[in-house]
Amino acid sequence: MTEDTSVISPRASWHLWAVGILGVLWNGFGCFDFTMTVTRNEGYLAGYPEEMLAYWFAMPWWIFALWAVGVFGGLLGSLALLMKKRLAVLLFAASLLAAIISNIIGMTDTDAPKMEGTEIIPVIIIALAAAFLAYAYWQSRRGVLR
Fold this sequence. Notes:
Elements: H1 14-38, H2 42-45, H3 50-57, H4 61-82, H5 87-108, H6 121-142
């Protein structure tokens, strides 16, 4: 008599798809914003004040690298979550860390021009990155992610 030693992982709930799709949309917009900014797309950047654009384009390359890790890590983490891959946890962790570092630098830079009404955006970015990481970690602990 043989014993079945296969492990049955729990089924993914509907909310995995909801969180994954929300993550693709949110982080996909971040990737679009990053791409339009680094390529200096005139139509996309037309609504920003000149002083803001000058500040962004004078930033060192490593700030853009942090931004890229944040948004592309979040997008890849969302895709990995939808594919039920444990790699989503690592990708979301990298995204959160990059978001924290880059937003702290931006919020504490006294030379940075400020746009009225945008003060809450870094908090939203970090909160969502933390929520995506927490959700992926929870799904990994449940055995949904492989």
